[in-house]
């Protein structure tokens, strides 16, 4: 195989290739142009034909993210995926210092690449789909019932102490990382502010401060996707009432949009009771980390 940087005019070829993967549910269909323009996208060619794509994305000076590894389905199982991953790892070692991460579903054939190239698994989370717009009764009620005495409130990041509470929750629930779509960057105040400022955040308060918090946000570049992260709190505080209020909030703020998310496992029962489903094709999302030697 030969490897080269992707050009804008590769976008259509890549789109045609990835449309045949995961029954067309691939974020690259919507965003390959933007990713090529931002940089770090590579193409693999065999006999002059595009057979693969991958991306090495720089999140910060010392933070890297691997994404978008795809091989043409007609070519699977011939070692091309492993070769393309090894190419990406060489690019990373040539340029990188600091830390590299990536995430993949347990059903993907790329899982063995992680351990083989020195990555350590840092998170496992179930992948869920919450078809909010098909849950009829949720939309008509108020987000929080006026007579409820359960500490629920909708607020935002300006709330004193909330940013710190979410950061601490990232440390406890997400290995210190902030899950943003499939990207797990280090959780910092700047990043949380950048993504969550102005977004509604459902909180549950107790006598000694916050007991749970769940921000809702969508990536403005991919508005059909809506996420709940970083969701933090004790399992008692993130109960059915909390999750149903979150569903009503989501329907009010983002009508017509379903939620796709990965959740720390402890919250799954409350979400399942509110009509959320585990995705059978993508049961677990694994996130991996590799410390690069200087
Ligand atoms: C993941 C992907 C890039 C791998 O490409 P590939 O060319 O099939 O990869 P390889 O031939 O190198 O095989 C990779 C692994 O798949 C597994 N595999 C190979 N043939 C298989 C088959 N017929 N059935 C099931 N698994 C198989 C093997 O475990 C192999 O690992 P090994 O080298 O340790 O034996 C490709 O399958 C793909 O595009 N999948 C859809 C997108 C995706 O999952 N991307 C990864 C997201 S991070």
Explained architecture:
- By secondary structure, the chain is α+β, with helices and mostly antiparallel strands.
- It contains 8 helices and 14 strands.
- It folds into 2 domains: 2-96, Aminopeptidase, CATH 3.40.630.30; 127-283, Gcn5-related N-acetyltransferase (GNAT) (Aminopeptidase), CATH 3.40.630.30.
- It has helices spanning 11-18, 27-38, 80-95, 111-116, 162-173, 189-196, 240-253, 268-273, and strands at 2-5, 41-46, 49-60, 63-71, 98-105, 120-130, 152-155, 201-206, 209-218, 226-228, 232-233, 259-262, 277-278, 284-292.
- Strands 1, 2, 3, 4, 5, 6, 12, 13 and 14 form a 9-stranded mixed β-sheet that branches. Strands 7, 8, 9, 10 and 11 form a 5-stranded antiparallel β-sheet that branches.
- A hairpin with a 2-residue loop joins strand 2 and strand 3.
- The longest helix is centred in the N-terminal third of the chain and has 16 residues, at 80-95.
- The structure holds coenzyme A.
- Coenzyme A is lined by residues 21, 69-71, 75-82, 104, 108-110, 112.
- The site of coenzyme A has 17 residues, from strand 4 and helix 3.
How many separate domains?
A: 2
* Fraction of helical residues: 25-40%
E-strand count: 14
Q: Which runs of at least 5 residues are low in confidence (pLDDT < 50)? A: none
Backbone shape = globular
Question: What is the residue-mean pLDDT, rounded to a whole number?
Answer: 92
Give the second-level CATH assignment, the architecture of the largest domain.
3-Layer(aba) Sandwich
The CATH class label of the largest domain is Alpha Beta
Strand content: 25-35%
The span between the termini is: 29 Å
What string, H for helix and E for strand, traces the elements in order? EHHEEEHEHEEHHEEEEHEHEE
What structural class do you assign from the helix and strand content? alpha+beta
The quaternary state of the protein chains shown equals: single chain
Number of helices: 8
Hetero groups in this structure are: coenzyme A
Specify Rg, calculated over alpha carbons.
20 Å
Main sheet makeup: 9 strands, mixed
CATH homology superfamily of the largest domain: Gcn5-related N-acetyltransferase (GNAT)
CATH topology (fold) name of the largest domain: Aminopeptidase
